[in-house]
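Worked example

This section walks through a single chain of length 127. The input is the sequence exactly as stored; nothing has been trimmed or padded.
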Amino acid sequence: MSVLIQDLVYRAREIRFESYDWAVIVRMLSAMNVVDAETLRQWDGAAPAYVPRDVARRIGRHLERKFAEDILEDCTPLEIPDYIRPIATSNGLWIDPALPLLRRPGKDYIYLGFAHFCHTCEGFSIG
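Given that input, the structure is written out below as tokens.
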């Protein structure tokens, strides 16, 4: 199932999310206290919900601030604890146990497109 977010004035302007991705965005907005909990419960996509322009702009500002904080967090160098040492194997290869830390997957900023949409829309409907 997917959730369609559509501009209230320009109906051709829309963005579609998979239900899992939309749930992540709603949880993120809940944690940031951008919108009250009762309103967020109505945004499950089961019934149409309408968001005015000023609330959309506020959501966009908060999500962009979160993106900036996430980028700054990624810029801090990763500290590998001293107790992690390379391990010799029987075939002469060395295994570095810190590789999973160094090769951690990048974050998926699914909310960044939604933040931009919130800044350009005239309010939106969720359906």
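What to look for: Residues 30 and 37 are 7 Å apart (CA to CA).
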